Automatic annotation (TrEMBL):
It comes from Ramlibacter pallidus. It comes from the Bacteria. The chain crosses the membrane at residues 32-53, 65-87, 99-118, 153-180, 192-211, 251-271, 278-297, 312-333, 340-356, 362-383, 390-408. This is Glycosyltransferase RgtA/B/C/D-like domain-containing protein. Keywords: Membrane, Transmembrane, Transmembrane helix. The keyword Ion transport does not apply. The keyword Membrane applies.
Amino acid sequence: MLAAGVLCTLSICAWLLRYSRYGVDFTDESFYLVWIANPFLYEWSVYLFGFFYHPLFSLLGGDVAALRQANLLVSFGLSSMLVWVLLRKHGPGMPASVRAVLAGSVACAGFLIADTWLPTPSYNSLAQQGLLVAAAGLVLTEREPSRQSLLGWLLVAAGGWLAFSGKPSSAAALAVVAPLYVAAAGKMNLRLLALAGAVAAGLLLATAFAIDGSVQRFAARLSTGVEYLGYMQGGYSAGDVLRWDGFSLPAAERVALVVLALGASFGALCLQGGARAWAVGAVVCGLLAGGTLVLSLDVPVRGAALGPYKDLLLLAVPLAAVVAVVLAPAHLARPRRAELALALLLAILPHVYAFGTNGNYWQAAGAAGVFWVAAGLVLLLPALAPGGGLALLPLALATQLVTAAVMFDAMQDPYRQPEPLRHNRMAVQFGSPSSNLLLSDDYAAYLESVRKAAGLAGFQPGTPVIDLSGQSPGILYALGARNIGQAWMIGGYPGSGPLAAASLRHVPCEEIGRAWLLAEPGGPRRLSGAVLQASGLSVERDYSPAGSWHTARGAGGYADPRLQVLMKPLRADAEAACRQARQAPAPAGGR
């Protein structure tokens, strides 16, 4: 049974790492790449993930597939660390081999950070990884000073710093729930808490100097980012983020959740029984492992697509733990105050991760569902017979099965891509010369037409471009252009125009004067040429079409192809016009 857990872990890892070479999204995922590739190009930001992942990007030579693989492995490794620490502290006497297999098996849930097939590092992955570090630290913390406790508090500080750099809203929520947990668990030590706060502040101070050279400029970066985020009117205001969302699982998924929970709890109880019960438990483990292997070995499987809350199937694991605790023999222990407090903390952390997003909180929380699984383990550990760590294996195998099902569904319908990843067969350079991805025929033809038209127009890599299409950061990334103003000049929101106009005012007039334009006439997320007025320029007067092409089916999430036009600058005195316009009061911008 332990071998089955190891085999499933290796199979899932190999499967996801192999598919890291497949597919690309030209909107959100490409925004992540643009921001990571050149984060110092932008004077304002809310998220700092680009600065954190940029050294890794450079080390890997801009290889997108390798960057994705590294991101997935970091989430897997930190998830393993959390579960290992948890089992070591709350499962005394458990053999190291059992603990290692369980840690690796449960850690597969960390891969759900790519649950829509956006495996490239982002603010979401950095927030998840920071919370994993902080959670491991909170497990280790104690009221009395010791090496272990000190390490725990330092990990809490480092995790909070990483979470802030990913999503400041998640770090703010963590700053509330972490002290509440240590107080509820009887671990509060004000001196050590103050030390953790001081270390986190020191790390943030070092970050400020590394990025902007001073605290004042760093503070201005963040405050401007918050102000500009408000321009967009995208649901990020305080009134928008303080809410309670609901969810609804399709009937088939509700049945699957209940069956999985009952099966895992039944298997856990059988593995604490006699020889006959053990045999039944082994059968349960075999069925769970078999399902995982069928999916992760890429066996063609037909079935209905999962719904938007598919990650919530992981709730079957803590539910199984509750059932097993209730049905466990009366002479075995039940969770005490410390375990209950830790389980509650872990159960809340997925919503800490989701806090601040403009999407449904339950849907977003699923990407951090590994914490729900960890909460289930904490509840069940005290009710295990001495040396009964193997009874947790059905829960771990159930975790792997849900992970495999979710990732299989993501590969069948990858985010804003036209077909399942397994159908992608065209090798295309995307970004640096060492970066090659396997794309669909349509996407490969799209990129080829873009490169051909840009080459005929005389476009050179490194040339600044203002993206008025509202949805094509990936096209500029593929061309090697400099996306000026924003890493993604995003369209489609009520305040996209004012945000674009304000962003361009941070770009030097020298860059504005020689910038090309990418336009999408009639596009659903296009930006008006009015955003250039604050820079003293006009699309109609100062630019000339240099090349054009049609988007691929499915690009940006839209089925119908659309015309895109690359335009080169005509005006020789564009830089001077920009400087003159900026001396006047800034206009509100256009939509």
